[in-house]
Amino acid sequence: MANVVVVGAQWGDEGKGKVVDIYTEYADDVVRYQGGNNAGHTLVVGDEKVVLHLIPSGILHEGKRCIIGNGVVLDPEVFIREITNLKASGRLKDDSALLVSESVHVIMPYHKRIDIARESKSGEKKIGTTGRGIGPTYEDKIGRRGIRLMDLLNRETFARKLRENLEEKNFILTSLLGEQPFTFDEIFAQYCGYAETLGKYIADTTLLLFNDIKAGKKLLFEGAQGTLLDVDHGTYPYVTSSSTCAGGACTGSGVSPRDIHEIIGISKAYVTRVGSGPFPTELLDADGEQLRQTGKEFGATTGRPRRCGWFDAMVVRYAVRVNGLTGVALTKLDVLNDFDTIRICTGYTYNGKTLADLPASLDIFEQCQPVYEEVPGWKSDISSARSFDELPENARAYVKQLEKLIDCPIVLVSVGPRRDQTIIIKNPFQ
Fold first, then answer.
1. Residues with catalytic annotation?
2. I need a surface site. Which of 2, 23, 240, 358 has the fewest CB within 10 A?
């Protein structure tokens, strides 16, 4: 038996969806443990492209159970739309294959309006939020005033909590943000309608997972975003509002840490970032634009162009440490096919001094200078390689150098967007 956590090892958008899709073949349950519809997985199945924001990408496999854990914040409208789209494409024939924790906190319309209004007033200090209401929903969760899915099933409880929240939220919207308030009736009727649709998917998922572990089933945990966007361990305040690191898999699902056996970090063969915040290896030249266009680096959720840069070993070494990674899956190696030479950031300097690790201070991080080594490219198409030995010598050398610099084995290499364009060096489930 093996239970595996998949985490982003950079700033998100590393290709976790494809890796989860591949590993789902070996799992019984796929569990999403944090974040909301501010994330997106783009999957290529045959000639079809599927984009998911909330539902685990394991839903594309029949016979697997997908669970949205208590650590997620859920927009009912988005969730229902994803279900509708899946069913329209002939998927999710068995509704029992998708379950949502009764303790999931619900994104309300006022969360989204507050999110957008705050960001628009931030000027140069914008965080880069997607405006989906994720942060304000987590604020209410931590402030012990959130509305959970179980509350929607009890109209009396829901009505009481909604009235209490609207009193505060409407004051914030009108007095502080200059926005229009909400009325009780417009939200109450809408969300009671959602509850009728969602009822059959709501369950005590912590108990289900506990029983599945006892029965010897294999669990695959997937997070959203990446390590450097963790609210505690990322480049604060340019982070998301949840625990994206491996520890979040336990708190966000109710599974014990002793039941986690492998932790796989997903990293691109280069690095990208969306939104504001420090990015030492960012490329603002033709090389950066080549990475963006070749890698199709535009957000699955927002469509925003991603900032692109050379691989940063400092970032991934940090991810190895704080997550306890047992392996790294390297994605988009094929995006580097046409480069004559490729640069790798091996460390940082600050005020002329070499740093041993990522600085906690944002002010220092923003002034760090990358230290590069340069390696030759392979100048050939690697998309048909199906074993590590089939890669060109320079491509193999590049992967081995990254492995050495991050001090963690690379267990998977992706050479294209399709499922079959993947080299599995070591399977964490075996």
1. 13, 41, 141
2. 2
